[in-house]
Amino acid sequence: MYERQYVAEIRKRLAEPRFTIIAVTGPRQVGKTTLVRQALEGTQVPVIYENADGLARSADGWIADVWAGARRTAAGGTAVLVIDEIQKVAEWSEAVKREWDADTWNNVDVRVIVLGSSTVLLNKGLRESLAGRFERIRVPTWSFSEMKTAFNWNLETFAIYGGYPGSVPYIDDRERWRSYMMDSVIEPVILKDVLQLYRIDKPALLRELMLVGATMSSREVSYTKLLGVLHDAGNTSTVVHYLDILEEAGVLCGLSKFSTSVITRRTSPKLQVFANGISTACGAPWSPSMNSDDFGRCYESLVGTHLRNLTDGTFFKLSWWRDGNDEVDFVIHDHRTCLAIEVSTGTRHGWRGIDALRKKHPHSRAIRVGTDGISNESFLSLPLSDIMNL
């Protein structure tokens, strides 16, 4: 079975002295439970695996019970406690904090891994009570190089259907594949993640924003235009808030316009999915027979997914840039570095956007992906460190 790089990272953390809780986070259906299981295979330390799915007992009672069992298993040595679907336990973070702090005080060596299917609910618990007590391992959707190695996918297949491994058996039946994506990825994000945590006054609007926004991935869309295509949209603030929620859920975000100003104003976002498979499932016309304009947007979105996943959790920010008719597809930047990235399929975009950006920001560097630049396949196989050194 294919092992993602995060398996080695979990093993490395477990081999260290007991410092912090390991929190494995990421979107639904990217294989978080599988990679934790792989990391623990062959370990010489006792492992206790508990799943909170379907739990009917209180948070305090259940977590205290499983933790007590882990302490008994450790018996003066070391044990690993894995709690899956922990977000389904009410007020779980307070209970985990209490048990973890007790072990720290009593010098008990129980290593803890927490994970769950809901990124939103898991993140909320980590922020509320466990600050300073956990280290996050972010697990994004699968990259092109991973899908190519594990399933022998070519670039075109990945551009249309990537990056959810569970969908692989269904790609030869488009409707069946779409049903899997809707039932296993998109609808659970809305119904189980977002609506359980946030007060959503317009749930139909949230769902429509997800479905419509995903089909517009790689496009700059003014909030006014977005309001015009959504029913019962309310106001801009509502759409901005819902887009932020969908970003935390790991499905769709709005990239901001690049600026070196400390004070920025709200501008038109560039919509970006976290995996192109989301766009295709929501209705984007991406297929082997797509026209040249759709082909260009598909591959621009594909580069965007790669960059968004690479920069998540780093000090770098992913943006886009426009000045009049001059545009740059993506800009990766921090307080010292600015890298402009232009995506070309041979059917769209010149290079004047990069030239215009570099005139205004002489310290910036630029690369081209696709036609007359680094190939899409090569670029999508690069880690962030290599991209920033191109």
Characterise the protein shown here.
This protein is an alpha/beta fold. The chain has two domains: 5-138, 3-Layer(aba) Sandwich (Rossmann fold), CATH 3.40.50; 144-388, no CATH class. The chain is 46% helix and 17% strand. It has helices spanning 5-15, 32-40, 59-74, 92-106, 119-129, 144-151, 155-161, 174-197, 203-215, 223-229, 236-248, 276-282, 292-311, 352-360, 376-379, 384-388; strands at residues 21-25, 47-51, 78-84, 109-115, 134-138, 252-255, 270-273, 317-323, 326-333, 338-344, 365-370. β2, α3 (59-74) and β3 (78-84) form a beta-alpha-beta unit. α7 packs across α12 and α8 packs across α9.
Annotate the secondary structure layout:
Layout: H1 5-15, E1 21-25, H2 32-40, E2 47-51, H3 59-74, E3 78-84, H4 92-106, E4 109-115, H5 119-129, E5 134-138, H6 144-151, H7 155-161, H8 174-197, H9 203-215, H10 223-229, H11 236-248, E6 252-255, E7 270-273, H12 276-282, H13 292-311, E8 317-323, E9 326-333, E10 338-344, H14 352-360, E11 365-370, H15 376-379, H16 384-388
Parallel strand pairs: 1-4, 1-5, 2-3, 3-4, 10-11
Antiparallel strand pairs: 6-7, 8-9, 9-10
